[in-house]
Design brief:
Number of helices: 15
Distance between the termini: 43 Å
Mean pLDDT: 95
Largest sheet: 7 strands, mixed
CATH topology of the largest domain: Aspartate Aminotransferase, domain 2
EC number: 2.3.1.37
Organism: Commensalibacter intestini
Pathway: Porphyrin-containing compound metabolism; protoporphyrin-IX biosynthesis; 5-aminolevulinate from glycine: step 1/1
CATH class of the largest domain: Alpha Beta
Low-confidence stretches: none
InterPro entries: 4pyrrol_synth_NH2levulA_synth, Aminotrans_II_pyridoxalP_BS, Aminotransferase_I/II_large, AON_synthase_class-II, PyrdxlP-dep_Trfase, PyrdxlP-dep_Trfase_major, PyrdxlP-dep_Trfase_small
Strand order of the largest sheet: 4-10-9-8-7-5-6
CATH architecture of the largest domain: 3-Layer(aba) Sandwich
CATH superfamily of the largest domain: Type I PLP-dependent aspartate aminotransferase-like (Major domain)
Protein name: 5-aminolevulinate synthase
Order of helices and strands: HHEEEHHEHEHEHEHEHEEHHHHEHEEEH
Structural class: alpha/beta
Length: about 400
């Protein structure tokens, strides 16, 4: 087998060397096979489909509200499959636009107080395709001011617009952002790209202040709310809704795969912007539409989350209870105002080892977050308590961490 690899295309050898280097740097990621129990979330089964091991309590799910296991949401998916089939059957331009797509786009636009919305196959694609398309418009020449901790999907979209310039400002640093805006040519088209909740540290942007700077320097604002939709605001419209500044943001992007528990991404904005993206964004035009079996439960989930504020209240009650238990046990964690609870480890190998032992010895799953996702020396376990984590589950996690740290 080795001889075959050595005599094959040089890319095979390149991959071997790259994988060895990734392993040596402690960045090699191995998947843990977990099967969610819809009736007992956040309990999962570990193992393959043929042989399940003992149950595992998961502490790192992005289904923050557990909407993906809500009976009404699941039934919407089941009924859609029975009535419309398993797939979409085409792109949105080729027989793939269903009335459910239209209804969900209208629902999301209304959620964020915008004129229109556009669905994408994922949150990553919605960022990449939208930003790249916008920044390639008007013959290029855009200057993007991008937060230092923006998600890879935003970075990919910005870099994909070859004729635009990207200026990175210090994370959540309004002074640095204004200095960079002021130094840019006044005539250049500008866009500020940032997030509301940053998923690794759990900190939150001052959206209103950023929008004020955008107005002062005539910049477009592009806000990623993927870790906030469903969770913040009276109806789950995100931090911009919570802070009553959604109307000041030009473009709000979100996901259906986290707080809403299903799948897909979207952008909302004025009708002209959405129509331009619909007709110009290749990441939208040339891909098969989300199937009705996904859109139907997403629509049901958004509608439920908008109506039922108790879900958000329960989430943050659980988060605050867990933080209190960690503090009382002397376990180091980042105190933030968001729903994300990073337990700080500070070493990549130790972080992976603690995560491994939590799973093997205590049947607790907590994702290790290492470099390059976070800076070296800030490695952590990223914990996301949800409304279904009981006090007993929290006590088990706290005791396990106490014994391992």
């Amino acid at each position: 087998m080795t001889d075959q690899v050595e005599s094959a295309h040089p890319f095979y050898a390149y991959c071997q060397n790259a994988l060895q280097e990734i392993e040596q740097q402690g960045r090699y990621r191995r998947f843990t096979s977990l099967s969610r129990r819809s009736a007992s979330y956040p309990v999962y089964d570990k193992g393959n489909l043929e042989q399940q091991e003992k149950p595992v309590v998961v502490w790192s799910s992005n289904d923050y509200l557990g909407m993906g296991v809500e009976p009404e949401v699941m039934n919407a998916a089941i009924n859609a499959v029975k009535e419309y089939g398993a797939g979409a059957g085409g792109t949105r331009n080729i027989a793939g636009t269903h009335p459910l797509h239209v209804a969900l786009e209208a629902e999301l636009a209304d959620l964020h107080g915008k004129e229109a919305g556009l669905l994408f196959v994922s949150g990553y694609v919605s960022n990449q395709a939208s930003l790249q398309t916008i920044l390639a418009s008007m013959s290029g020449g855009w200057i993007t001011f991008s937060d230092q901790q923006n998600h890879a999907s935003m970075i990919a979209g910005i870099k994909g617009a070859k004729q635009s310039e990207c200026i990175i400002f210090k994370h959540n640093d309004l002074k640095d952002l204004e200095e960079k805006l002021a130094a840019a040519p006044a005539s250049a088209p500008k866009l500020i790209a940032f997030e509301s909740v940053y998923s690794m540290d759990g900190d939150i942007a001052d959206i209103g202040a950023i929008c004020a700077l955008a107005r002062k320097y005539n910049a477009l604002t592009y806000l990623d709310e993927v870790h906030a939709v469903g969770l913040y605001g009276e109806q789950g419209g995100g931090v911009s809704q919570r802070d009553n500044v959604a109307d000041q943001v030009d473009i709000i992007e979100g996901t259906l795969a986290k707080g809403f528990g299903v799948h897909g991404g979207y952008v909302t904005a004025k009708k002209e912007i959405i129509e331009y993206l619909r007709l110009a964004a290749s990441g939208f035009i040339f891909t098969t539409a989300l199937p009705p079996s996904i859109v139907a439960p997403a629509l049901a989930s958004v509608r439920l989350a908008r109506q039922q504020n108790w879900r958000r209240e329960k989430l943050f009650e659980r988060v605050h209870t867990f933080q209190k238990k960690l503090k009382e046990a002397g376990i180091p964690y980042l105190q933030t105002e968001s729903h994300i609870v990073p337990v700080m480890i500070g070493d990549a190998e130790r972080c992976k080892e603690i995560s491994k032992r939590l799973l093997e010895e205590f049947s607790l799953y907590a994702t290790p977050i290492n470099y390059p996702t976070v800076p070296k020396g800030t490695e952590r376990l990223r914990l996301t308590p949800n409304p279904f984590h009981t006090d007993a589950m929290m006590d088990d996690m706290v005791q396990a961490l106490k014994s391992l740290l």
